[in-house]
Amino acid sequence: MLKFLTALSLLLTSSMLWAAPRVPDEVQNNGLVYCTHATGFSFNPQTADAGTSMNVVTEQIYNKLFELKTNSSQVEPSLAQSYEFSNDGKTLTIHLRKGVKFQQTPWFIPSRDFNADDVVFSLNRVLGHNTSLPEFTPTPSKGMNRQYQIFYGLAKKTRFPYFDSIKLNQKIERVESTDPYTVQIHLLQPDASILSHLASQYAVIFSHEYALQLNADDNITQLDTLPVGTGAYQLKDYLQGQYVRLVRNENYWKEKAKLKNIIIDLSSDKIASLAKFLNNECQLAAFPDATQLGLLKEQGERFQTHTVESMNLSFLAFNFLRPSMQDVEIRHAIAQAIDRKKIIKHIYYDTATVANNIIPSVSWAAGDDQPHFDYDYNPAQAKKILENKNLTLEMWVLKEELVYNPSPIKMAEMIKSDLAKAGITVKVRLVSRNFLMQHLHDKSEDYDLILSGWLASSLDPDAFLRPILSCSTVHEITNLSNWCSPSFEQLLNKGLSNNNPNIRASDYHLAQQEILSQLPILPIASVKRVLISNTHVQNIEMTAFGNVHFEKLKFKRGGR
């Protein structure tokens, strides 16, 4: 803390370090600056991993067919106006809202309103089906040399991490329009989670007309860099790694945003963001370091702290491909050897809770009756089981700070120390995400333990459990335990066959019971999302996914 305060003091007093470009008058008079960091930044949520772009850009520029109701299994229409399922539950018919206009930008002028073509294109794109974009044969007259052909081919091989993780292409058979404002989604089998996936922050709707224009120019990659949506704000300017400037969409189909300008400062780390916030260079700051929150309390009534429970889980995965990790007694003993409360105190500084179940408490499927973790910290019992095993284990740690684990290296060292006391030698290996993905692809992942986690974009428990523990995701970046249980898989599938949330919740409770018994992963922490704001900013509502809808924000009269 002393080092942090010293560094902060230097930052605040150094005029050279903080000689930032002047904020334009129009932003000063009718706008807001939001400080965050640029991890995982993208203008296309379909192709992005969870990151900054989800929290501060895509929810402002785009709209989805549905929105999630707070902490509920229910959704409410957005670009959709109404919907119904067929009697067999395998066809979802969506009636679309009329009169919704796409944003007019310097790079695209729409000639029509939003319609079914846009929905069919957007969904088919993530399914890997025919995307309604004609293929062009390169010819010398078009000036396409061999190198460009290779680049263009690779650019079209787009990856969709969220939709790949939930196996959306194994849920949906086809998507088609029956008239300009009606879309039908044909499912391979009834699936009670489909609406929640269509309401996730990844399921945004693009302009098919814009995509056709870009495709005709062999420039489809621009769809991901110069966005065009139907949301409350549109892109004005962007400097990579520095800032995004949004301006109000004057043709927005709902009530217009109250603030005309939003600047998203991407240039700072967490300490620098706090310094800017205290200097009033930004009025909102996202996800401050937990160690900084005590300092803010000393500022009195100048600032507010907003916290929400979130759909995330930090865990330690046991690799079932390794013989020693297949022993359930060893897994239980390792769980008893790790002091999770100490981790919460020293890694999260009490901005997280000890995870005693798999599904986070914010989900509608959680409840007091769901199964709880029964292997509390008991080093004496763990040592009794482990000290004669003569185990030497390799633990991999991703070299990146994520929402569910802000300090993975420190956590790994704490776990290593705890296991050493129980008689286990742990070798910690820091790896990059690309290194890990390559080994998973080659099926050569030779770790025994790996620190990981999951950050969901839906309150539906299927979107939380299936990616990290289902048989279909073995050897993938999400299921790092390589665990596959037919009985668990059966419970997951049963949970999708009924639309009654109470019946579904009971199926997921049984699924959790099997996880906590077999322990393919050791749950560690569920992290709260934190936002700090100037008290002059009103109408701040943060979702369980860390999103803030800028269109609702305003300043107190005279407060700006």
From TrEMBL:
GO terms for cellular component: ATP-binding cassette (ABC) transporter complex; outer membrane-bounded periplasmic space. Residues 74-473 form the Solute-binding protein family domain. Coiled coil: none annotated. Residues 1-19 form the signal peptide. SUPFAM superfamilies: Periplasmic binding protein-like II. GO terms for biological process: peptide transport. Keywords: Signal. InterPro entries: Peptide/Ni-bd (IPR030678), SBP_5 (IPR039424), SBP_5_CS (IPR023765), SBP_5_dom (IPR000914). Belongs to the bacterial solute-binding protein 5 family. This is Cationic peptide transport system substrate-binding protein. The lineage of its organism: Bacteria, Pseudomonadati, Pseudomonadota, Gammaproteobacteria, Pasteurellales.
